[in-house]
Amino acid sequence: MRVTGTGHASMRIDTAAGSILCDPWVNPAYFASWFPFPDNSLLDWETLGQVDYLYVSHLHRDHFDAAHLKRYVSKDATVLLPEFPTSEMEDELRELGFTKFLRAPNEQVVELDGGLKIMIQALTSPTDGPIGDSSLWVEYDGVRLLNQNDARPTDLSVFTELGHVHAHMLQFSGAIWYPMVYELPQSAKTAFGKQKRERQFDRTWRYIADLKADHVFPIAGPPCFLDDALWQFNDIHGDEGNIFPDQSVFLSEYAKVGGTNGIVLLPGSVAEVTTGGATTTHPVPVAEYFANKAAHLEEMRERKRGVIEAEKASWRHPEVDVLAGMKRRIEPLLEESIYLAKGVGGPVRFDLVGYDGESVESIVVDFPGKEVRPYADEKVRYRFRTDRALIEHLLHIGEVDWVNSLFLSCRFSAARIGQYNEFVYAFFKCLSTERLQYAEGWYDEHERSTDAEDITLDDWVVQRRCPHLKADLTRFGIVEGDQLTCQLHGWKFDLPSGRCLTSVGHKIRAHRATAETPTP
To answer: Which Pfam families does the protein's record reference (predicted)?
Structure first.
């Protein structure tokens, strides 16, 4: 099995029975804030796009690059389609000209022509990408590969049961806006960032230990930030709280925990994977490339400056009445929302900075009141500050996912009162009736379900599944004193009270092992 690195989470997998192109991303994403690093725009995409199969893991725009898919990927390719709860991915791919689809049943092995086998695991909670994320397992002639990209399954046993894996591709770096955009003292940002960076690596080590693959390939991150306003987010400034460590940092940190089987793929690197090992060739020496990272970024910044400016020029839509547009888009969804509106539990404020850089219009999304209205000088749970032009553009294009557009751009600042509230972000991912109805149904199902199985961790008896996303706490749960941490996403719980310390809701069932079992 030959694996050609094509940048970020993208790769081309070649076997004698066919080729698969995964997640090709080249063009800037999220309001031109994210670019692939190392740069992959100079690869021979005309050739790379001539494949038998296309696999797109999910609709994040650093995985689903519509312009690139339309121009460079063969429309004769069969799309390996995850079993997602909505038809959005298929609909978008059809609009780009793709007509052949293999709808892979979730977690079922499908044998393609020539003995090539694939299996796709789809994750479908409202917090998994925009209505879904997925992983691809591939087998040919006894060689097995898992492309986990940035999916976060609670359990990898569905893959290990299919046989020993030889190549494991997985995310290791940040793909979020926290804590950089929060209005906090720099010391607090550094502390929170360092904690998140450590959690990212801890989660990666856990996945690697669970799968026990012969070779580990760090992919799906980090992006680079070439706009002058975002330049500080690149991990070149000696900031121990930066959440975007690169592949060379991964190798260094992996070595500290005994990892010796890591392989970095630059754009154009080729790994020949067999049951007996892997040999890799690179277009340039890997260590030397990352040693000169700052210089490469500077060169990219100058080369892409025109692209960024052209994007910025397209965002302003002065004809858009933002308050009226938000009311039309959001108020009908507030009326339909039960679980998400209750979960948010208060007003959320948007401070929109005008074209002059000084004037501010404040608009409130009032979840209890089910309306969008001008700010009335009340206390709010969350506050977001961003350029008016960005909201104008979202309304102009009818964007249904403000999280995986505005928020991932990092072109905003935020403040909140109290804990992180996942319902805020779940709602702003679901600005369409189809998405909202799915999210409401998912939360309804999980609210009504009971998790009756208990386990013992240290001196505590707790429910086996994390209340957040049902991770198995026998594997991901760590107890320190009276506090439990689920290492899959870093969520914390106070065991004596059961209260979630990370977000609103999500109470855990727990009691000391020496105490009597509470009456339900």
So the answer is: Rieske, SCP2_Rv3818
State yes or no: pLDDT of 69 exceeds 70. Answer: yes
Question: Is residue 461 within 8 Å of 516, Cβ to Cβ?
Answer: no
Strand 18-22 relative to strand 53-55: parallel, antiparallel, unpaired? parallel
From 165, 148, 157, select the one nearest 218 (Cα to Cα): 148
In angstroms, rounded to a whole number, what is the distance separating the alpha carbons of residues 32 and 392?
16
> Parallel, antiparallel, or unpaired for β 117-123 and 110-111?
antiparallel
- Long-range (24+ apart) CB contacts under 8 A made by 101-104 are 102/53, 102/78, 104/80
Closest by CA to 231, choosing from 160, 285, 308, is 308
Helix H or strand E encompassing 159: helix 157-160
208 φ, ψ to 5°? -60, -45
**CA dihedral (123, 105, 428, 385) positive or negative:** positive
- Six-digit token string for 267: 């754009």
3-class DSSP assignment, residue 51? coil
Q: How many CB atoms lie within 10 A of CB 212?
A: 11
Placement of tokens 């960076």 in the chain:
197
Backbone angles phi, psi at 211, to 5 degrees: -85, -35
Q: Is the pLDDT of residue 451 over 70?
A: no
Lookup result for tokens 């004596």: 496
Contact 506, 497 (CB under 8 A): no
Burial call 360-380: b when 16+ CB within 10 Å, e when fewer = eeebbbbbeebebeebeeeeb
CB 349 within 8 A of CB 383: yes
For 267-276, letters b (16+ CB in 10 Å) and e give bbbbbebeee
* pLDDT band per the 50, 70, 90 thresholds, residue 448: low
166-216 residue pLDDT tens: 999 999 999 999 999 999 999 999 999 999 999 999 999 999 999 999 999
Per-residue pLDDT tens over the stretch 477-488? 999 999 999 987
Euclidean distance between CA atoms 202 and 225, whole angstroms: 25
Strands of 133-140's sheet in order across: 110-111, 117-123, 133-140, 143-149, 167-171, 215-219
Summarised one tens digit per residue, pLDDT across range 6-42 is: 999 999 999 999 999 999 999 999 999 999 999 999 9
